[in-house]
Design goal:
Order of helices and strands: HEHHHHEEEHEHHHHEEEHHEHEEHEEHEE
Shape: rod-shaped
Number of strands: 15
Bound molecules: adenosine-5'-diphosphate
Number of helices: 15
């Protein structure tokens, strides 16, 4: 209400908050108040009975002036407020404190409720309360908006609260924890009670704290809006987890920093999987390069060894041919022994070379239909002398000139030679070695069997590994590299076949080469 400074004669009726009126001004005031549409403005007597009623009051509360003047203002209050004497208390408080203001629910004529801002001012005359001025505003709309906002904030809070996979919490502008959700509890192990109010650097390893990483993260977030990081963080129990962390600065409408939102994900499992993948890849690469290095070394060494061995063979032949004069019988015998040893050594080295070439994938295969029994006869001829030396009987069982296999002839003979040499080597003097071929559907099976020392069941697969020799010792009577079976199996498989074994200790062994039939 406007004030002005003209005095009014004492004893004339007071208009609220105006003790200096003139009749003209009173009229203007009344017109003004009457016309106000958005505020209910009315006067009450000292006991709270309504004296005046303006357009805003009519609009807001729904009563016509004639209906309401003379009624008590508690008519606007919900029954509970009336029952508790609230309207009367408002008047008393207004008198005691010079004014009373509140917000609360009020009732319209039609019974509907509205959210009111109420201001009650006592009117005093010579220190005595003569009445009250009451201004009421309808804030239902604002209240509804606030309510809606509060509800949506509450919904959001509950949502954040219940998120389990992400730690979501708030920091104040100094980095102290202001809220906590279930995900944060799950990831970090603290309950809200334990952690709210503590500084978020609690989650960082000591070295990060010493380097003020937490402080740096907040400064960056404040400067550019947000900060994202991945790194080790500390749980309540002291264990580490690999966290993805996003810190977002929160600013009020006027730009002042009100804190930070922090979202943390536990990526420990993902990190472990990543590290494992890296480690696996490294191991594979290492193994590959170690293998390559081994093959290259074997190839180089074999080559270096063959050169002098060939020289030994060549000069032995020259001596044996009598090029430096005739030889005694004893000299001839010695030369023969040198020659046999040289041949043997050369054979071993060829094995190694073959194997390393095969490892390096350098062998060429010339696959043709091969008459099998002819190939077997060829190889049997090569081992005849060895077998005879140990009085071992060689048999070619059920030779069938019609059987042809698809193979590289030289490699097939290499396999058979290796199997027969082994059979003779590992069979005691006077034993028996046989080769037997049979066609089964699209395949041909070639058994090389002996009645020798046999192989223990638990070693039967190992003998196909490179460099494995069963029962090998420094005093072993059997020589070899332990490569023959490994090479033979690789050769057989490279020709779409296989090499397998069955054996019984002290009874003998049977090695079976399988190859595709040619027709
Ligand atoms: P090497 O004959 O050069 O030692 P192999 O790879 O040909 O290498 O054979 C590996 C091992 O398998 C032999 O050292 C031997 O212990 C065992 N073995 C191979 N053939 C037979 C066989 N016919 N009887 C018993 N043991 C055998």
């Amino acid at each position: 209400m406007a004030h002005h400074d003209r005095a009014r004669p004492p004893g004339s009726p007071a208009s609220p908050a105006d003790r200096h009126s003139t009749p003209e001004l009173d009229a203007i005031h009344r017109a003004l108040v009457d016309a106000v549409n958005d505020y209910a403005i009315f006067a009450m007597d000292a006991t709270g009975h309504i004296l005046t009623w303006n357009a805003g009051a009519r609009k807001l509360k729904g009563y016509e002036k004639e209906e309401i003047v003379g009624r008590h203002f508690s008519i606007f209050y919900p029954p509970a407020a009336v029952a508790s004497g609230h309207p009367q208390w408002e008047l008393e408080t207004a008198v005691a404190e010079g004014r009373y203001e509140e917000e609360g629910w009020r009732i319209r004529k039609d019974g509907s409720r509205f959210w009111a801002n109420v201001l009650i001012t006592p009117v005093l005359e010579n220190g005595v309360v003569t009445g009250f001025a009451k201004v009421t505003r309808d804030l239902t709309e604002r209240k509804r908006n606030e309510e809606e906002l509060r509800r949506s904030e509450e919904r959001f809070r509950l949502l954040v609260q219940s998120v389990k996979d992400y730690g979501i919490f708030m920091l104040d502008p100094n980095g102290f924890i202001a809220s906590w959700n279930e995900g944060a509890q799950r990831i970090k192990g603290y309950t809200a009670d334990e952690i709210v109010g503590r500084h978020f650097s609690t989650f960082y390893p000591p070295e990060d704290v010493a380097a003020d990483k937490p402080g740096m993260e907040l400064r960056v977030a404040a400067q550019v809006g947000s900060f994202e990081d991945e790194g080790w963080r500390v749980r309540k129990d002291g264990t580490l987890f690999w966290g993805n962390v996003v810190i977002t600065a929160l600013r009020a409408g006027d730009g002042t920093l009100i804190g930070y939102a922090k979202v943390t994900r536990d990526l420990t499992d993902r990190r472990a999987a990543e590290l494992k993948a890296i480690e696996d890849a490294r191991r594979v690469a290492e193994a590959e390069s170690a293998n390559r290095a081994k093959s290259e070394f074997l190839a180089a060494m074999s080559h270096e060894l063959r050169t002098p061995l060939n020289a030994i063979g060549g000069y032995t032949d020259l001596l044996a041919a009598g090029i430096h004069g005739p030889l005694t019988e004893a000299q001839q015998t010695s030369l023969t022994r040198i020659r046999v040893s040289q041949q043997h050594l050369l054979g071993l080295i060829n094995d190694i070379l073959n194997f390393s070439r095969m490892e390096a994938g350098q062998l060429q295969y010339d696959i043709q239909p091969i008459p099998l029994s002819a190939a077997v006869e060829n190889v049997l001829a090569m081992v005849e002398v060895q077998a005879a030396a140990r009085e071992i009987t060689l048999e070619h069982v059920g030779a069938d000139a019609n059987i042809r296999v698809l193979a590289d002839e030289a490699k097939l003979e290499q396999i058979l030679l290796n199997l027969l040499t082994n059979a003779i080597k590992f069979t005691p003097v006077g034993g028996r070695v046989s080769v037997q071929s049979v066609r089964r559907g699209d395949e041909v099976k070639i058994d090389v069997a002996d009645n020798g020392i046999g192989i223990a069941a638990d070693k039967l697969e190992a003998v196909f590994e490179p460099f494995v020799q069963v029962g090998r010792s420094l005093t072993s009577a059997h020589e070899g590299t332990g490569l023959g079976l490994a090479i033979s199996r690789d050769l057989a498989r490279a020709m779409a076949g296989d090499l397998t074994a069955r054996s019984a200790l002290d009874e003998g062994s049977t090695f079976t080469v399988t190859l595709p039939a040619a027709d």
